[in-house]
Amino acid sequence: MEARQPTPEPDRPSGEQPRRVSGELRLTGEPPLPGLRGRAETSWLMTVSLMVLASVAVAAALWYTRPVMVPFVLAIFISYLVSPLVDFLRVQWRLPKAAAVTLSLLVAAALLALLAMLIITSTRGLLENIDLYRARIINLAERGIGWIDRFGDFGQDALVEGLRQVPLLAWLQRGAGEAVGFVTNGVLVLIFVVYLLSGRHPNQFRSGIYAEIDTKVRHYIVIKFATSATTGLLTGIILSILGLDLALVFGVMAFLLNFIPSIGSVIATLLPLPVALIQYQSGVAITLVVLLPGAVQFTIGNIVEPLIMGEGLDLHPIIIILALVFWGLLWGVVGMLLAAPITAILRIVFARFEITRPLAEVMAGRFPDGTIVPSEA
User: Fold this and answer.
1) pTM for the whole thing?
2) Which residues contact 79 (CB under 8 A, 6 or more apart)?
3) What pLDDT is recorded for position 296?
């Protein structure tokens, strides 16, 4: 019997290696088979469709469970701030776990109580002078209407009468009640923090995706807390020196709003403007109320924070804005505060899987070439 002679391989340029695709030996330099490309595109579209449906289902679940999930997620990020103190007490002072957690939570509760006292004290002073503020608002409106009267009658008298009937006191009481209620809801958050810190091991070694998430999120939250606290403190001091009412409240609001990327600092800068327009008669004082805190926001947010933060969360600014809208619609103000770190966690998870890695690159602002490479058999 004759031995079968091996089929000679076709000539190919040097450097090209053969590969087997769907049972056929082909060169790596050749384009993929049309049928194989079509199957790859169909598989990719099916995967993307399933991801969209799963995202909608998860978003609906998060919205439905927000009374529990919002305090829980907030507790996770607070634990990132408190855990270094717990680790220090356990490792350096060798305190038992229960004592270290209790002492750390007492510090957190004291800060929360101080925040509540600042809000209550400032709003109480505003409520005591509500009639004075109403008169100032009407006076400001009458001056504006006097200027409009030069161009004709547009129903200005009805506008002034409407301002006299505005339930300003009820609005302020409702706003103060919501602010205090937001602080008092921290009790549920503290309960979650207790359990999160109790299960923490300071010497535990972490690796993989959890280590990357832990490192990036902890770095972001600690630095953001420090820069936001500095911004709020300087804003409160500046507004107090200028004699603005509710200066402490505006300092606290600058601290909280600084956690919202991009638009938070703008809102915090313009927030004292209505009170300044009511309180001051001088245009210079009104300008300083906006200009000086704005300078603090710009310096810390655009110079100091990027210098300390370094790489940060590796998210494109457009992605951050979209995340603010999405999490704001889902969880309200708390969702906007936590939008950036939550989105960064999603980007890290997406980067770990081949099918979602292009999405992670887009979230970071690095756009792939868009080609679909078929899988080798």
Assistant:
1) 0.70
2) 193, 196, 197, 200
3) 93
